[in-house]
User: Which sequence fits this backbone?
């Protein structure tokens, strides 16, 4: 396998970069593959390379001291990850794990600096990519810090089983996120938190309310 | 019948990202549209729904009240 110029062209970092420039950038790009569930980047470790997903998907997450994971984002083809430590010289702020077989394009830290010096268009593109990343993370911080999302998710579940209908309601995590005014990633964590508190049980495609009173109590937390 | 993710063929652009993340090989792209293939029971990880950028896959949860 060799690095595909067509794919490089579609990466936002290289948007609007001429073919000749792209050919010279391509020489600095290396390939790396990862198997399902393989951790590509460990939180807290020194960062050596910037990565782009060529195929597959990568989950970016942080782990708490208790071992709980908070998904920050899912990186899809043509998107990048590990940008921040490459630019600020710090350690990896989060871990990255392959969600399936993944092919990555990587650029070593020193080579990234050379590319930015030699190709101002890439530097401009990087500011746009990072700005949109900041916007997405600010929104996630708002959800995690200021909103009692767990109580909102509890309320949604409580309302579903309090209806008149005999038919069991069905909701996706995306729909629950829209109803709670939050991100899908936060709903996933909220459901796990509700399970840990004994209010619900996640049983494959079922959410079983195991303790209605506990669930109701959680809904009463100000939101 | 095995419970399976709901696929909206109209929305699917056949990118196949869901196929790569599916841990039980329950998905395949057939004629440019993702389809559910007979496979060991889907464990409802919802990764396929999470990675789909067109919103073509839905993994709805059935919400069941406590036994009365």
Assistant:
């Amino acid at each position: 396998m060799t690095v595909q110029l067509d794919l490089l062209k579609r990466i936002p970092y290289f948007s609007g970069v001429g073919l000749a420039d792209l050919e010279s950038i391509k020489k600095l790009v290396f390939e790396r593959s990862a198997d399902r569930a393989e951790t590509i980047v460990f939180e807290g470790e020194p960062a050596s390379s910037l990565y782009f997903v060529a195929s597959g998907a990568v989950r970016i997450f942080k782990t708490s001291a208790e071992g709980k994971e908070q998904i920050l984002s899912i990186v899809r083809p043509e998107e990048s990850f590990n940008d921040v430590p490459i630019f600020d010289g710090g350690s990896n702020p989060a871990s990255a794990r392959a969600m399936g077989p993944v092919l990555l394009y990587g650029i070593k830290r020193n080579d990234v600096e050379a590319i930015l010096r030699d190709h101002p268009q890439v530097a401009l593109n990087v500011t746009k990519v990072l700005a949109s990343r900041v916007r997405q993370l600010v929104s996630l911080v708002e959800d995690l810090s200021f909103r009692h999302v767990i109580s909102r998710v509890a309320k949604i579940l409580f309302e579903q089983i309090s209806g008149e209908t005999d038919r069991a309601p069905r909701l996706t995590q995306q729909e629950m996120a829209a109803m709670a005014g939050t991100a899908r990633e936060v709903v996933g964590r909220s459901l796990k938190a509700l399970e840990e508190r004994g209010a619900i049980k996640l049983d494959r495609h079922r959410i079983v309310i195991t303790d209605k009173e506990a669930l109701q109590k959680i809904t009463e937390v100000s939101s | 019948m095995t419970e399976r993710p709901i696929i909206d063929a109209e929305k699917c652009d056949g990118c196949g990202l869901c196929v790569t993340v599916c841990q039980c090989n329950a998905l395949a792209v057939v004629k440019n549209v993702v389809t559910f293939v007979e496979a060991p029971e889907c464990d409802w990880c919802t990764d396929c729904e999470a990675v789909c950028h067109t919103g073509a896959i839905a993994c709805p949860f059935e919400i069941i009240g406590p036994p009365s």
In short: The first strand of chain A starts at residue 29 and ends at 34.
